[in-house]
Amino acid sequence: MKKFTQNPSLMRMIRLVFTLCAFWFIGLNLLWANPPTREVRVIGVQESIFQTQQAFFRHTIDQLNAVVEDRVYMLRPIKSHERFDMKTYGELDFAIVSPHVFSLLERYNGFTPMASLYVPVSDKPKPVMSTVLYASPERLQREFHDNLDTLTLGIFAKRPIAVIAGDVCDTALLLRNEMTLRGLNRPIIHEAGRGLSPEQAVKVAKSGAYDAIAVSTDFVRELPPYLFDGLIPVDLRIDDASGLVSTTTPLPGWVFAAGLETPRDNVRDLTATLLSLAISPKMQWGLPADYRAVHQAAERVKDEAYRSFQKKTLFEMIKEHWVWVVFGLTIVLGLAWHSIVAERMVRQRSAELMATVTKQRAAERQFEELERLTAVSQMSNIVAHELRQPLAAITNFAMGLRRRKENGSLTDESLDFALGRILSENERASDIVEHVRGYARRRARIVTEIRLADLTRKIMGSIKTSATAPVTLNSDIPADLVMEGDTLEVELILRNLIKNAVESVAKTPDAMVTVYGFGHERGVELVVEDNGPLQTRAELDRLAVPLVSEKSGGLGLGLSIVRKLIESYGGRIAFELARPSGLKVYVTFPVKPDFSEHV
């Protein structure tokens, strides 16, 4: 022991070993307490009905997490309705998708292929997929009889072909591409078996509703062979490059792609790791295939999803919409020509208009005078008509006095009554004449407050006295209903309407004329209703014809001047059929009549 401790070199070696062990132990504790941070990378995986492939993709991500120490890879499922939504892939670092979807990602989102999925083809993995078309003998037996073994792809142009739900994305592209390459019309593709298992979906497609069933080679590998018993493969061929037996020209298969924003060193490291993984004896990741054929197929068949994101040149847009372009240019040229012609016409018309402005102003002044003369002429007709009533009343009372005097029954009381009525009717006739003369001299209205109930009873009493047939006159106007206006004008309006209503019911049993009124927020409304013979709309429409006398219709010669009087107050007159027969006349005066006009 003494010898051992006296050797300086050996002691230095022992101390060095103990120091290294101490540092190693401390470092382990620090690493255990503070493990290194791992970056998170999101891998989107397109969902499909290929269960074996889906399991392979999940195992790929699990092994990546087990092998790579500085990163964590999270799986993000991409639903079938999201597969063509480019916004979904903007949040991803990597994506495992079918070739059809990858063509969009590569073209419009900047994704690059890292590795392709190699599947067994002739006992050797190849990065390809294709489509097999199976004919339904139940549908074609009647048409082709015993020649079903010689069916070709061209027979199914424009025929209904079923594609299994979940297998539509690339199968439809492969089938349409093959039809286009052969110069054939495209088939009518139907999605079958939505929401069902792959086995159930095949049985639905085999039910006889379609002429054929198209399935991808990946899908054929997923299902047991007996499911296709009874179906006839159509036009099978061997691809020289891959050795794949199918109906259509193969395209590159599923791809592991990197997003545009993913760091390039991560892409290189992950690509090397993918190529070194041993996940399944049947499938493996290999070098990326050439996906230009997929782009060419999408362009060739004018795939809607592919072309919907494509930025078109101006020439392409014009070529695609040339009909609308020609139509638009025609409209523009037409508008330009119309603008030139219109400008010339405007200048010409303006000169003509300026030349007639002076004449028009002079004509307007003459027209005003002519209008007044026309109104006076109309007023003369109604005055002659109105004067007959007070003159007839005066005559009746005078003849009554003569008869009473001749038979000796004349008393002082009856004499005073008759003389009073004669004077009253004479005064009314004088007022009518004076009002017309005043209008001709532009006399201003004499505006007073009119109690409509009192005025209506006065008019009814006068009309009933001179009536030649029994008629019941009713007045249902509130005692406090008043309006502002010229008493003679309002009396002319009511007298004409009531008198003509009385004349219209002269030959009607139980003849009745009712006048009622009410006030509302818009003004005062009066209604003259009779039960005369008026029954049809045609008879009612004749009332709107000016200067036409229709006694049987309930209106007389004074309708034109009555309408002008009402409109001069800012009011209106309307007519309506009464039930079961007769006429209703509505007269409305505003709350504040405008007395600036003369009639």
What topology does this entry show?
Blueprint: H1 2-5, H2 8-33, E1 39-46, H3 51-67, E2 71-78, H4 86-89, E3 94-97, H5 99-108, E4 112-121, E5 124-126, E6 128-129, E7 131-135, H6 137-144, E8 160-164, H7 168-181, E9 188-192, H8 198-205, E10 212-216, H9 217-222, E11 232-233, E12 237-238, E13 245-246, E14 251-252, E15 255-258, H10 264-276, E16 284-286, H11 292-300, H12 304-308, H13 314-320, H14 322-407, H15 412-440, E17 447-451, H16 452-466, E18 472-476, E19 482-486, H17 487-504, E20 512-520, E21 523-530, H18 537-541, H19 559-568, E22 572-577, E23 583-590
Parallel strand pairs: 1-2, 1-3, 8-9, 8-10, 18-20
Antiparallel strand pairs: 3-15, 4-5, 4-15, 4-16, 6-14, 7-10, 7-11, 12-13, 17-19, 20-21, 21-23, 22-23
- Total beta strand runs: 23
Give a short account of the largest sheet: 7 strands, mixed
Helix fraction? Answer: 40-55%
**Which ranges are low-confidence, i.e. pLDDT below 50, for 5 or more consecutive residues?**
552-557
Overall geometry comes to elongated
Summed up, the helix count is: 19
Cα-atom radius of gyration: 53 Å
What structural class is derived from the secondary structure elements?
Answer: alpha+beta
First-last Cα distance: 149 Å
Share of β-strand residues: 15-25%
Global mean pLDDT: 81
